[in-house]
């Protein structure tokens, strides 16, 4: 009887403890969704670090060093694509399955994942959680303030948005895998291996990660333009963001019904895609180590492919370390901008660039407000855009200086790999694979901060948003 009493008391204590934990998580999810998102993302990184540390995850059956396991976990969950080990050779089939699952989990995004888990824990999607979920289309939602409803998904549509995230990921990756499968067979991959490689490549394209399951990477498919075009299409769909996919699904080609966010995202993405290709073509057409050794058609196509991949795709057909210094700078600029908000891409986001460009144009024209497509962009959105650029630049600068000091490597290569990590791109000059452990940890932290997002990170740190019911006297400092 005494033993039964002990068991009952132990079960009761465990029940009380679990109830308290669930209650604490519920309170955190409802009170501070951004902070809850960071907590969830950190937990995922720790979980996958443990999985990658298992001997079964390595091809040789030995335990992977902690620094490599942690870096791979961060790169996988953050859908970055950088690696300190040979991804195709180092990991076992079990390890590759972990990578596949990890990138799909990471692709859901910090805010979307936090909203879904918050819904599960609280049994309902509260107003604050809805605001944060709507913040996938407009990060300002995390801070409050006046917001034009045309710029974001309405609160009643958040449930549909979350469903669209999961459904679009499944449908798009399945469609890409179906298209890629015949090309794999044509290029000599056996049918059974192709059944695994097709969905793997599809996931790496849509999530903008860039890992490849085979040792040669994309080299065996360098002349298969259909295969490469499908990869680019997957990267594009992943980089425009779930809110844009939601808008296109709802309104198709009815341009007048598109949100301002969707218009700015698509227009800026297309402009950067063609401008980047033109610049790479101009800078590399006479470089025999990259594009110079190809005919005119191959050179043009590879320039477009490189432009698409520097936007966050991470796949590469040319040796990045052989690019001219000017091309590395251009690539760094494209990577820093990244893709669309609430997308699998990283960077400061194309809408941030668009808002700042419109602000500069409006100031040059002497307009009292920033306008686009018959809509006025409020000043608080512009302030958030400036904050994102400032935080992003600071993170990149600090990481570049730190890693440069640790390694003594050429600063242009350090800058390229750091921006690639911050913007979760995955392209590398070869530096990442040679980093010592202290630099590995710095770059892993940079990837984490880049994927979590500067706005989300700032919102998570801030305890509450304070309203000010008075204004101070105006005085204008000299600027410029």
TrEMBL record:
Subcellular location, principal: membrane
InterPro entries according to UniProt: Cat_transpt
Coiled coil: none
One annotated Gene Ontology cellular component of this protein: plasma membrane
Bilayer-crossing regions: 36-54, 97-121, 161-181, 225-249, 261-283, 333-361, 381-402, 439-463
Pfam family, one: TrkH
GO BP: any one term: metal ion transport
Membrane topology (UniProt): Multi-pass membrane protein
Location(s) in or outside the cell: Cell membrane
Molecular function GO labels: monoatomic cation transmembrane transporter activity
Keyword vocabulary terms for this entry: Cell membrane, Ion transport, Membrane, Transmembrane, Transmembrane helix, Transport
Protein name, UniProt field: Potassium transporter Trk
Taxon lineage: Bacteria, Bacillati, Actinomycetota, Actinomycetes, Micrococcales
């Amino acid at each position: 009887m005494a033993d039964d009493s002990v068991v009952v008391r132990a079960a009761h204590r465990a029940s009380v403890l679990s109830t308290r934990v669930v209650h604490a998580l519920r309170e955190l999810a409802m009170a501070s969704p951004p902070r809850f998102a960071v907590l969830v993302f950190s937990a995922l990184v720790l979980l996958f670090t443990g999985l990658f540390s298992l001997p079964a995850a390595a091809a040789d059956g030995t335990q992977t060093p902690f620094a490599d396991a942690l870096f791979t976990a961060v790169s996988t969950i953050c859908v970055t694509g950088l690696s300190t080990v040979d991804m195709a050779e180092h990991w076992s089939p079990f390890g590759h399955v972990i990578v596949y699952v990890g990138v799909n989990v990471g692709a859901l995004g910090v805010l979307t994942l936090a909203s879904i888990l918050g819904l599960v824990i609280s049994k309902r999607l509260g107003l604050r959680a809805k605001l944060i979920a709507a913040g996938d289309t407009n990060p300002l939602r995390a801070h409050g303030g006046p917001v034009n409803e045309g710029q974001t998904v309405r609160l009643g549509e958040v449930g549909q948005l979350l469903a669209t995230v999961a459904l679009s990921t499944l449908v798009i990756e399945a469609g890409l895998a179906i298209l890629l499968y015949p090309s794999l067979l044509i290029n000599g991959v056996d049918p059974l291996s192709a059944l695994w490689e097709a969905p793997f490549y599809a996931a790496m394209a849509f999530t903008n990660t860039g890992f490849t399951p085979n040792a040669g990477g994309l080299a065996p498919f360098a002349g298969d333009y259909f295969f490469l075009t499908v990869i680019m299409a997957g990267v594009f769909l992943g980089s425009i963001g779930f809110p844009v996919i939601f808008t296109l699904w709802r309104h198709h080609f009815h341009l007048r019904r598109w949100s301002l966010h969707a218009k700015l995202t698509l227009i800026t993405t297309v402009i950067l895609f063609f401008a980047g290709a033109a610049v790479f073509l101009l800078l590399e057409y006479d470089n025999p180590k990259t594009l110079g050794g190809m005919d005119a058609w191959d050179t043009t196509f590879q320039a477009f492919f490189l432009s698409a991949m520097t936007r966050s795709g991470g796949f590469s057909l040319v040796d990045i370390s052989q690019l001219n210094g000017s091309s590395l700078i251009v690539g760094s600029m494209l990577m820093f901008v990244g893709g669309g908000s609430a997308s699998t891409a990283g960077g400061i986001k194309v809408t941030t660039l668009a808002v700042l460009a419109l602000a500069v144009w409006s100031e040059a024209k002497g307009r009292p407000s920033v306008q686009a497509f018959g809509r006025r962009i409020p000043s608080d959105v512009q302030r958030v855009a400036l904050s994102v650029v400032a935080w992003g630049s600071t993170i990149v600068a600090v990481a570049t200086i730190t890693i440069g000091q640790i390694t003594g490597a050429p600063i242009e290569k350090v800058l390229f790999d750091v921006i690639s990590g911050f913007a979760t791109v995955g392209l590398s000059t070869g530096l990442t694979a040679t980093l010592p452990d202290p630099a590995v940890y710095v770059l892993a932290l940079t990837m984490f901060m880049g994927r979590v997002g500067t706005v989300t990170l700032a919102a998570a740190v801030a305890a509450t948003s304070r309203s000010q019911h008075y204004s101070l006297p105006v005085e204008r400092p000299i600027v410029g």
